[in-house]
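Can you please make up a whole protein chain along with its backbone structure tokens because I've never seen that pairing?
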Amino acid sequence: MGAGMKIKVDHVTNSSSASFTILKKYLSQFQMDLIMNHIEESHQFIIHRGPQTEIYNSPGDAWRITETDDSIEGWTSMDNFDMLWFLDKIGVERRFIEWDHS
């Protein structure tokens, strides 16, 4: 599983998918709660992103997030919520990120 997280880094289109896994040992409980509720929680960070960048954060743009005993996992199949931006904003270290390409 690499360093603990898989997530897609290039542009996600309707014909591709993206997924990630973050081992819980690399996350605080606060970060896990934010990820599980990423659409609702993203609103507090939007003003810091700048006026030129569009943010997809409506409920239809949400990633499918699940929790196991050891990890938080997410999956999407569309160009939607910018999970990397959000993970940066909540302080998830990029050294634990390994993107999965489909």
In short: The chain has one domain: 18-101. Helices lie at 29-36, 38-42, 83-89. The longest helix spans residues 29-36. The radius of gyration is 13 Å.
